[in-house]
Every structure is written in structure tokens, then in C-alpha cells.
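Sanity check

After download, print the first record. It should look like this:
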Amino acid sequence: METKKIGIVIGIAVVAVVLIAFMGIATGFFVLGPGNGDIKKFGTFSYVEGTAVEKIDGKPVVRLFSTTWCPHCIWIKETFDSTMKEYVAQGKIVAYHWEIDTGDNSLTPDMEKEVPASELAIFSKFSPGNNIPLFVFGGKYYRIGNGFESQQDLEKEKAEFRAMIEQLLKE
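Expected C-alpha cells:
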């Protein structure tokens, strides 16, 4: 009889743990990230070791996913956009800054109306909880939020963007 009670208690505990884990994953509380490997750090960015750098026409792809109403996104917008435009003009990278609420890529002169489904899939992969701003460098390095906003240091942000791009160009 005592063994049966222990079995029931263990069964209930297992079910509870599974439900808690499922709810945490479904709500984005437990962020799994883009892979199952060991997550490493490069500056304020994370990456999964062994992930290949995503390239278009031999150039690394850099993305920022933001909105027009997010204060953190507004804070970083000009620094990100100007840095990316510089590298794009030099022919070193392909870059996108998707404003999810408007569908616009703010790095082009055109006013896009919709973020392509393939780009939204990348957003979901790296930010299962749909958190912004989300930076994805080369489909490998990613960061949710700004690295130096608490210090109000846009120069450190720019320096880290440059370091990330230079790292991508080496890979």
C-alpha cells in the first residue's frame, strides 16, 4: 500500500514538472534559443558553437528586429542603421532592420509593407518570446536587448557592432 502511494506521488510530480516546462517554453519564459548546443558569449552576444555563418552572395547577413514604438529600439535605431549602411556601402555585408509593426526595412529607401515570412521565422527562432530589439549577426550571434543602454553608451554599441561584423568577415 505504501509503495502505491509513493508511485502516485512520483507520477503527480512528473506530470507537474512536464506541465511547468511546457508552459514555460510555450510562453517564452524558458528561452531555448536557436540550438541545442552549448551557448557561448562574444561580447554581449550569444551563439551556439559550431553554427555556420549565414551569407548571401558570400556576405554575412545582419538583422535587427524592432518596432517603431519600443523605446529601446528607438534608442539604438540610428546607431545600428548608420553602422550597417556604412558596411553595406562597402560591399561587406547584407543588412536588414525590420520594424515588425510597420513591415518596413528601414535600411532601404523603399517603404516595405510586410516582413517576409522567412524573416519572421528567423525572429521566432532567436526570440521565442517575441522580445525586441533582437539583433542577429550572421544567423549565428544574437542578442535580445541593447548591451549598453543602461550606461547610455551608443559608442560602445557601435564598437560592438563593428567587432561583430569583423568577426563575421573572418569566419
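If your output differs, re-run the checksum step. Summary of this record's structure: Confidence is low (pLDDT under 50) at residues 21-32.
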